[in-house]
Amino acid sequence: MIIKSMVIEVFTNEHTFYKRLDFEKDLNIIRGENSSGKSSILNLILYSLGCEELLGGKGHKTMKPALRRAIEYKETEFKVIKSHVLLEIENNSNKTITIKRDIIGNNDPRLIKVSFGGKITKQDSRNFEEQDMYIHDPGSAANRLGFHNFLENFLNLTLPSVPYYKGYDRKLYIQTLFPVFFIEQTRGWSNFLSTIPKYYGIKNVSKRVIEFILELDLLKNEKASEEIRLRKQVIKEKWRLTYSDLTNLASNSSGSFGNSIPKNPDVLSKKHDEFSLFIKQDDSESIPIDQEIEKLEDQFNKLEIKQNGSLSGSDLDKKKTKLSKSIDEVNIMNVQVSKIRKEIRVEKDVMETLKGQLLTVKEDLQNNKDVLKLKKFGSKMNFSINNNICPTCHQGIKDSLLSQELEQTPMNVEDNIKFLENQKKMINLSIVQSELMIEKMKAQASYLEKSLFEKQNIIRFLKKEMIANEDLPSEYQIKRKLVIQNKIEDLTKIQSKFNNIIINLFSLSDQWKEILQDESELPTDHFSKSDKDKLNNLRRHFQSYLRKFGFSSADISDIQISEDTYLPMIEGLDLRFDSAASDHIRAIWAYTLAVYRTSKSFNGNHPHLLFFDEPRQQEVSKEHFSIFLAEIKKIIKDGQALVTSSISLDDLEVATNEIDYKLIKLDNKSIQPKSIG
Known about the structure:
Low-confidence stretches: 385-407, 468-472
Helix content: 40-55%
Shape: elongated
Largest sheet: 7 strands, antiparallel
Strand order of the largest sheet: 9-8-7-6-1-2-22
Strand content: 15-25%
Number of strands: 22
Distance between the termini: 28 Å
Oligomer: single chain
Number of domains: 3
């Protein structure tokens, strides 16, 4: 990101106070006396970007009184009635936008206007498209009209989801990134990353920010490890329940399955048909259930041979008629089942379409709610959402619910919201009705399939009865046959259940194997090789800068980068506790530049932007301040650095000897009446 230009306007009844500042790529030094407004300029950059939380609060209260209460000029105070700031920035795709945000005035400070072009640097900016957006309100980091969501996309960032203390994962807020490259004067020099907002509830927020800036694999690996742990937990529970079903089945059938099936999740090496349920015989021996079924079927078939003698002609005709009728009924039922199954598929397609419409309606509803929010904040825009134009990408959109051939008078936002709320309710109701219809049809299909099974059994028995046999069976044979038949049916059901359980276990085994494979691909020692290279690089650069900047409070070779916090440590303690005040400033210089350089070397996510507000704190020597500026100059190619300083112009000239930079001089008060400034 490059800061191209800034305009500050403060309106009083008597004057319009104005200041324009133009910045360049590379190194910019803003020089002025302590009361000239240097810090206000950097603070206004934060304010324009909706990141004033680094200053300790939100909204206009974070700004200096001269911008919101009274401005002094020639020993006279003028009451401020309105003020705003415009900031023109460029992304790494050379696209430019201009951001306007009121400090005080009629509009809510949560309202931001974005112009898609250089409204300050381009003389004719009348044709730039504009869009109102909002900040510091629910949805500003995620919704289409949320400014921080827009800024994330504009800067080509993809902020990760990180763990929060409340137990869920959510996006890392863009505001948390700024303390890595923006050191403000009031609190920024007190410690490393001292201005990171802590009240979002993000676990280890400083750590997560550095991981993102350096693009460490650790967060991804930690999330993958946690996901694997949860997947394992699910498989273990499913395996436990399935194994319990297996033991219950064996117990209820007086069977056993030996030790071939593990009690806990494992990768099964045998084939499906190599697992069997063993049934106990009268002689206390156990044989596989499929062998027991074969044995009983053999006994049954022998008894079948001794079935009734030949049927009489009339009985045979009756049996044939009944058989023919049953076959016709089976054919009809098959057609009915097929028809219902097809209707179920159609209804499922309808339900998926409804769910897609619901998603679209929810998005439209959120967009309209955002528009209403912007209007409440003071936006006067004629939002194109009412005219089927996307409010952010400015492309045409089609209403998902109404015919495109209808002549429509656009509704106002409130009516849109009511309409979409009703559409949402209607679609939800339709989805519920569709689900009920599917369940009803499934029940019908299940009933028909059960009837079909019974009819098919009748057909089988009819066919058997029509077979002529020589001998009449005895009463014992008939009873014996029924007993065997019932036992075959019972064992067949048990075998079917057993096979289904084995199929489930193999499915779980495959999932377990996949989980173990994913787990094996994770680094075994916490950090990936790439992460180790980056952290070693960060440590080397940090130590190198400490030497260049004259750090002397401790042996620099003893200073390390903590693998837990990624912050400088010495003998397990925070470096700050073992450093003189001036050396602590040197350490912040060194760490800020080392993070920038490491991220740049490994194509990380640093925005290639550095801000230092009065970096010569604690009377750091002029020599080391000069070296600090020279080191910024070395690494800031293709990026930008803004440094404020109150040292004299003569001292600055010495400090910047042989350094090419842009000097921005602030004389007295930086903001003056327009006719004068």
